[in-house]
Amino acid sequence: MDAASLDGDLGKLRWRCRRGMKELDVLLTRYVEEDYLGATLEQQAAFRALLDSQDPLLNDYFLGRESPTDPILCALIERITVRPLNAR
C-alpha cells in the first residue's frame, strides 16, 4: 500500500472514531494514532469491526460492564483501555 492510500485509510478510520461521546473519541482516536499501524492484520480487522458497534455498547465494553464474545475483540478492548489517557 502506498503512502497516499495509507493516509486516506487512516483518515477514514479517524473519521469513524468520531463518536457521540468524547471519551470514546479519545480512546479510539488514540488507538489509531499510536497502535493501529503496528497491530496485526487480524487486530486491525477487529478494530474496524469494533467501530461498527453502537456507542452505548462501546461504552459498556470500555467500562467493563460487558465483554464481547470474540477473544480478539476482548484483547483489543483491554489494549485500548489499559493505558492511562495521559500516557504517550
Arithmetic mean pLDDT: 88
Which residues sit in consecutive blocks of at least 5 with pLDDT less than 50?
Answer: none
Strand residue content: under 5%
CATH fold call: DNA polymerase, domain 1
Q: Tally the helices.
A: 5
What about the largest sheet? none
Distance between the termini: 27 Å
Q: Calculate Rg over CA atoms.
A: 13 Å
Protein described:
The chain has a single domain, classed as DNA polymerase, domain 1, CATH 1.10.150. It has 88 residues and is mostly helical. The protein contains 5 helices and no strands. The protein has helices spanning 3-16, 22-34, 41-50, 55-63, 71-82. The radius of gyration is 13 Å and the shape is globular.
Summarize this entry quickly.
By secondary structure, the chain is mainly α. It has a single domain (3-82), classed as Flavinator of succinate dehydrogenase (DNA polymerase, domain 1), CATH 1.10.150.250. The chain has 5 helices and no strands.
SSE arrangement:
Elements: H1 3-16, H2 22-34, H3 41-50, H4 55-63, H5 71-82
Keywords:
mainly alpha; 66% helix; 88 residues; DNA polymerase, domain 1
